[in-house]
């Protein structure tokens, strides 16, 4: 499945490297316990610099979504209609993703979803997407 | 310090063309600069303050000052996307109040229709870059995310969003320069192809070449001009962002920029005779109207129905030039034309079919960036010269 491949920076590298072993990581601040999304070197809540990578549960619900009829980039032209969603993870953060494994018409706000690792990038990293639970 | 009455808009200009393949972007900047200065009755040599945003090529205000031959005591290149030009009016008023300049020129130009458009290289270096685009999102996807959530929380319908496009088309019929001049119905909007559910093609603004310019002057300059000026009464600005992964999709920065502008002007939403509301998409208008306090949160769908936005007799006549939805969204940035049409209304120079009678107070509101990620909201309250 062709995708715009995310560049990896020293800051985001742990997140992307963990996708090779199908782990969904997120940072948590040791000082204020805030879950931090996307990766940073300081917590945007308290500016603490002790951020620890933890594995997220991979479960959450669709906060909102849309159905892309016109592709967002040429690499995804063959995939339309595809679903873009903001999924709210159990850890509290909302991340952009795709919902796969069901018809676009079945997706709704509040739908329970879990992470899926179907999308492998050319270098072996994977793009976390979500599918309905069960 | 307040800017209430500290500065006046003396000249505005909207480029009449919507497709300009035969000019460079700096040329269009120059054309609109001269247009607005001519409207004010001033010359390039009078300009001592210059404002531009990310659409200005090269080194921004430095390149443009050189190209235009300006000799300046004040520059400002604040970039908040499409709302930049409303922020510039506020900052120009502040600079004038502080004695930093007397004649401030603000310009916008671009050619995304004939020349294509891509985000600057800086976007790929943004901290969020790898965590939004790989899933195939784009600008319109973000607005669709906001629309879906508004529908979920408040029961807003696609037909209600369509009413906003219909109102813009009612107005655009009278604008001979408008890119889309045909009246459309709710059914036609709903029958147009879905771009990103729930948004249809006709929920989106037009993509046009063009530009515009504004001249803001000190009161002592305005006094000597023959042209009717418009007072800057209040301004508010508010960036809003994803809030560490907890983005709230049903509110905009208007929630904060609106009250700041109203307070400075000493007026309330009920006092506003005409409103220019940023309309990159229909949902942008709906959420902004709620957040600015024109109706209760979640009731925007009812507010815009049954001609609520249609001039001259609607609850809140809006975007009487046809807005970004029908008339013009030059350089993919709609803030400039929002100010220009508000000035036309306050001068009584809008098309007679859409001119609001006794228009004394107008609001212009901009939403740069995206509803679904980070945005720059900016609100201006403007008043007739005799207010």
How does the SSE layout of this entry go?
The complex is a heterodimer of chains A (134) and B (387).
Chain A: H1 13-18, E1 25-29, E2 35-36, E3 51-55, E4 59-68, E5 82-89, E6 94-99, E7 112-120, E8 126-132
Antiparallel strand pairs in A: 1-2, 1-3, 4-5, 4-7, 5-6, 7-8
Chain B: E1 8-14, H1 25-40, E2 49-51, H2 61-68, E3 74-76, H3 84-97, E4 103-110, H4 112-115, H5 139-154, H6 158-172, H7 186-191, E5 194-197, E6 199-200, E7 210-217, H8 219-223, E8 230-240, H9 254-265, E9 274-277, H10 282-291, H11 300-304, H12 323-327, H13 335-347, E10 361-369, E11 375-384
Parallel strand pairs in B: 2-3, 2-4, 9-10
Antiparallel strand pairs in B: 1-7, 1-8, 4-7, 5-6, 8-11, 10-11
Helix pairs in contact in B: 6-10
Instruction: Return the CATH architecture of the largest domain in chain B.
Output: 3-Layer(aba) Sandwich
Percent in strands of chain B: 15-25%
Q: How many H/I helical runs of chain A?
A: 1
Quantity of strands of chain B, as a count:
11
Give, in spatial order, the strands making up the sheet with the most strands of chain A: 6-5-4-7-8
Question: Which secondary-structure class do the elements of chain A indicate?
Answer: mainly beta
Distance between the termini of chain B: 20 Å
CATH-defined superfamily of the largest domain in chain B: Thiolase/Chalcone synthase
Termini separation of chain A: 24 Å
In total, the number of domains of chain B comes to 2
**What is the radius of gyration of chain B computed over CA atoms, rounded to a whole number of angstroms?**
19 Å
Q: What portion of residues of chain B is helical?
A: 25-40%
In angstroms, what is the radius of gyration of chain A? 15 Å
Order of helices and strands of chain B: EHEHEHEHHHHEEEHEHEHHHHEE
